Amino acid sequence: MTESLAQRRILLTGGAGFLGRQVLERLLAQGCGHVTAPRSSEFDLRDPAATDRLFQQADPELVIHLAARVGGIGANRRQPGTFFHDNLVMGVNLLESARRAPMAGAKVVLIGTICSYPKMTPVPFREEDLWNGYPEETNAPYGIAKKALLVMQDAYRREFGLRGIYLMPVNLYGPHDNFDPEDSHVIPALIRKCVEAFEAGAATITCWGSGAATREFLYVQDCAEAIVLAAARHDGEAPMNLGSGREIAIRDLARLIADLCGFRGEIRWDSSRPDGQPRRRLDTSRAEAALGWKAHTSLEEGLRRTIEWYRGTRGRQVGG
User: Fold this and answer.
1) Partner residues linked to 218 by β-bridges
2) What pLDDT, in 10s, does the model give residues 196-216?
3) What is the DSSP letter of 135?
4) Can 173 be counted among the known catalytic residues?
5) 0.90 exceeded by pTM
6) Phi and psi at residue 48, in whole multiples of 5°?
7) What is the layout of strands, in order, in the sheet containing 107-111?
8) 10-174+216-245+281-296, what's its fold?
9) What sign results for the dihedral spanned by CA atoms 216, 308, 315, 18?
10) How wide is the angle at C-alpha 242 spanned by C-alphas 234 and 30, nearest 5°?
11) In the chain, what are the domain boundaries?
12) For a FRET experiment, which of 16, 105, 268, 283 has its CA 20 to 30 Å from that of 39?
């Protein structure tokens, strides 16, 4: 089933964020003229009364929930309680407000996380493996909070008839990412480190972990495309992976980023720092079958665009 989104009243939470701004841009490009994308300063989704007020004002027919508290391994280790609380409570309040709102026939699109998968999930990760163990410890509170919303969404569908879909993107990267060294994910952290080392003429850089862990990365604009397609075409109950299908070791990723940034020095590894989950690569066949979607931006091209954007906007980066 394909729904026309152009005339629908759409509520997009997190619309000013890294992923949200790309989803908003794609919705507007498709002619969607009734999009509400509030700032957290206007409506704090951790507050149930504020969330109710938002639904009353937006009167949505489609909700895309991207608002989240996110960060890299360091941020998750420093604030596990905050990551669990904020992500869970925002989602709970949103689903409860959606249940009470006059949303007959409407749909809620929830964005989960690859961090919800068990630590030792067989590669490639299939959606059926989601409940076969405990997530990797460093980001388990975040992953479990997000997974709990999948359960709540399913329960609200069965009891209250609230339509909803649940998408699980792999690690995202691209322009407008967070490059703060205290809170960033691996790609922006490596880009910043390599750019600064190149400019300083440094002989070495030191990176977290052993470099042996593997990851899969999805360019943020490809992810935004998949989300909008799913909002229009998908109505299944089961969660759906979104990824690129390419697995790369962190040591190889670091060398690739260093080369693209012009840094030719030595890359050292601090094995006292955690690697996180040992491997990540998704089976995305469900998304391909349901949406006709596959990622089309290569890692090399996406990194080039991201590095170019970062170098052009460094003065406006947090901590830059």
Assistant:
1) 172
2) 999 999 999 999 899 999 999
3) B
4) no
5) yes
6) -60, -35
7) 35-36, 10-13, 62-65, 107-111, 163-169, 240-242
8) Rossmann fold (3.40.50)
9) negative
10) 55
11) 10-174+216-245+281-296
12) 105
